[in-house]
Amino acid sequence: MATAAHRMDAPAALPDDLLLAVRDLKIAIGTDEGRIVPVNGVDLTLGHGRTLGLVGESGSGKSLSTKALMQLLPNTAQILDGSHLLFRTKQGSVVDLAGFAPRGKQIRAIRGGEIAMIFQEPMASFSPVYTIGNQMIEAIRLHRGFDKKAARALAIDMLGKVGLSNPRLRVDQYPHELSGGMRQRAMIAIALATNPSLLIADEPTTALDVTTQAQILALIRSLQDELGMSVLFITHDMGVIAQVADEVAVMYMGEVVEYGPTRDVVRHPQHPYTRGLLAAIPSIDQIGGRLTPIGGDLPSTRPSGCPFHTRCDQAISGRCDTVQPESTALGPSWWARCHLLGQAAS
To answer: Quick check: 158 and 136 in contact, CB under 8 A?
Structure first.
């Protein structure tokens, strides 16, 4: 297999079929021990109306990468020069979100209005002192310019659209009066009430029971089809990715190690880390048996060579531990970074 270059050369260009292109994203964080770079050269693309799954263990850089899109990084974090976060606005112009000031007018117009985000724990997103309706109405009026009456009507409509019973009652309830699944639906309603082009879903089903999780996943997919929005879905669970994503980016220690169409990656994973994530998914055939966890833990500091070599049982001594692997093309829009692939190609 031939080695392929996957970064685009013209930072200001964004093909018409794409809503978002993340190019060479690097994020540094200052610590007492010095500067670390937990996100190190991430490339992603997301088409109109498509779902991109971002998957990896906790600490792989998934959430940090997506928070950069909305300039919601911690105060100690910084997007490094050379990073590009190209986004197509509703007006059709292409902007580089990496150049926006975190508290500036430009990003505040996009944050919540054009790019919305839902989280794992909705109680962290709601204010406990305001009703669900008040919080929805504020967002709708800010980003869509509705008067209060029209905003309330839209809030009720959206609560009904996400499957909450008796939305006219729910709109005047406080977050603590709703169950966990109902709060998650209400959070989705708030995010979508502003009619965003992109929804970032950060582990939105992890804290839910299996039945409610399936309902929420189906709801997001249904609303995506209805509204035509794109979704960036963050999770540690490859089983969820297989259900919801058109394409998947597998992240490890701040890098994308495999990227491609979900069907191809799930059926024929090429990177050892991807195979490890898939092997850890429970299946009906394994009832009573043991899952196969990935050995070891994430290193506290980035190792030399391939970042996964310290946990890989196929690592090549003298190569994987010293040389960073290049991207190897596996098919249309499918690639992985692994010396084993390069060895097979040569």
So the answer is: yes
Q: Which amino acid is at 194?
A: T
Q: What is the pLDDT of residues 107-146, one digit of tens each?
A: 988 998 899 998 877 777 788 999 999 999 999 998 898 9
Query: What is the arrangement of strands in the sheet containing 334-337, beginning at the earlier edge strand?
Result: 115-118, 198-202, 230-235, 51-55, 247-252, 255-261, 334-337, 327-331
Could you tell me which residues come within 8 angstroms of residue 284 by beta carbon, excluding any fewer than 6 positions away?
Answer: none
Place of tokens 């310019």: 145
Q: Identify which of 120, 300, 135, 134 has the alpha carbon closest to the alpha carbon of residue 200.
A: 120
Distance CA 201, CA 120 (A): 8
Give the count of beta carbons closer than 10 Å to the beta carbon of residue 76.
Answer: 10
DSSP-derived 3-state class of residue 150: helix
For the chain, the farthest-separated pair of C-alpha atoms sits apart, in whole angstroms, at 68
For 67-76, the pLDDT digits (tens) are 999 999 999 9
Token representation of residue 186 = 């209400």
User: Distance (Å, rounded) from C-alpha 251 to C-alpha 229?
Assistant: 24
Report DSSP letters for 36-57, one per residue.
EEEEEEEEEEEETT-EEEEE--
> What Å distances lie between residue 215 and 171, 189, 210, CA to CA?
21, 14, 9
Centre a 10 Å sphere on the Cβ of residue 328 and count the other Cβ atoms it contains.
24
> What is the model's pTM?
0.89
Tell me if 102 sits within 8 A of 73, measured CB to CB: yes
Residue 136 to residue 292: CA distance in whole angstroms: 43
3-state secondary structure of 55: strand
